[in-house]
Amino acid sequence: MTESVLSTPRSLGSISGLLQVVSLLSLVLLLLKAAQLYLKRQRLLKAAQQFPSPPSHWFYGHSREFKKEQELQLTLKWVKKFPCACPRWLWGTNVIFLLYDPDYMKVILGRSDPKADEAYKFLAPWIGYGLLLLNGQPWFEHRRMLTPAFHYDILKPYVGTMADSVQMMLDKWEGLISQNPHLEIFEHISLMTLDTIMKCAFSYQGSVQTDRHSKFYIQAIEDLKNLFFSRVRNVFHQNDIIYRLAPEGCRNVHVCQLAHEHTDRVIRLRKAQLQKEGELEKVRQKRHLDFLDILLFSRMENGSSLSDKDLRAEVDTFMFEGHDTTASGISWILYALASHPEHQQRCREEIQSLLGDGASITWDHLDQMPYTTMCIKEALRLYPPIPGIGRELSKPITFPDGRSLPKGAIVVLFLYGLHHNPKVWPNPEVFDPFRFAPYATRHSHAFLPFSAGSRNCIGKQFAMNEMKVAVALTLLRFELAPDPSRVPVPSSQIVLKSQNGIYVSLKKLP
């Protein structure tokens, strides 16, 4: 009895001693981490000294300024004030360097720096590691594998499919404007571009624009973009464990599942089609395979080269990129033409002289509308579908003006800022299609709606074709005007959206 009583204080003493040791070690680790963060911040401050920027708080960075004003509008003020580039502090040691000078763009895009994993990794639960998120040799192998899917022999017959999808949307618009001429166009155009990519790249047989499941997918994409945008800017949501426990993290898991159900259904349907007698052999005899068939055959012929996970990642990536960025581009182009009736009419006359009533539009027509193409490019300058692209420097870099950044720095190629930079584009807010006239000259990296270099948009020709088809057929059917009561407010949410929708007034042409 005496022995057990005496042993209790000893055991309590040993526990107390252990707790003291643990506390001391924790304090040492905390101090080491604080010192590490301090030294990192000092290194970044030294690098940032070369690039003037507005004053920032040591912890909050510039976040308070962005709460007071629209993000794109505030950063455009920085573009005008600070030449070539400026740092934007998010919080603590987290800083990104915004670049918006064509010489800076050319240097970065001529290198092979990886995507900035700090932000892009948050997309992985949604789109996986497909062509957008891959780096290094895996990216090169996937790019080489998928490039044949965008050969012009493949793209040619897609023009007819694009036209059918656009005409279906325009038929729907005719019915809607009989009740209200003012129409929010982005959602309709998103369904149309999803319809197109499903039929062209994924051999889908049905009609996305009348399928209620597709509307759920479109909404899921919107939710995922908003959740991504919110997480990137929340210091407390950078940790995966904390984020999963938060309401937004739970919501993200649920919405990812909805998006994956859609892409899994697409893969499942195509696999079932390939099991039909004669279908498999017919596909094998094609000179150029469609996008999904390339993925499926690569996996069939070389089972270890493309896993189910890799297959779904590429489908998720292209399902999103193939419809959402193009929908953004088309929506803003139509809004720009609605806001400039003189250019709209000139485009319409050009298209009427080429197509008549638009009953049939072909691949050859797409290169015969120079003024419409100029207007499309000018709209893409004002409203680039992808406002910015992130890179993490794999080695130090020195820019043409002598300023430099160290290895590991995060840079954002701020395409929206580049396209609105008054030092690059005089009177940048003015819609002037003649900037893209055949005789016009500009810096090779002044206009980058599809990026440039080895990691440029693999589907840029597909997207440009779809934009031309959509604009041409829309202008043949409707006269467009802006809705003065609802002026769109551009917002960067992976793709360029409007915070309050993109409203256009439509009038049926006789």
TrEMBL record:
It is found in: Endoplasmic reticulum membrane. It comes from Erinaceus europaeus. It comes from the Eukaryota. InterPro entries: Cyt_P450, Cyt_P450_CS, Cyt_P450_E_grp-I, Cyt_P450_sf, Cytochrome_P450_Monoox. PANTHER family: CYTOCHROME P450 4A11-RELATED (PTHR24291:SF39), CYTOCHROME P450 FAMILY 4 (PTHR24291). SUPFAM superfamilies: Cytochrome P450. Its main location: endoplasmic reticulum. Belongs to the cytochrome P450 family. The chain crosses the membrane at residues 12-32. This is Cytochrome P450 4A6-like isoform X1. Keywords: Endoplasmic reticulum, Heme, Iron, Membrane, Metal-binding, Monooxygenase, Oxidoreductase, Transmembrane, Transmembrane helix. PROSITE patterns: CYTOCHROME_P450.
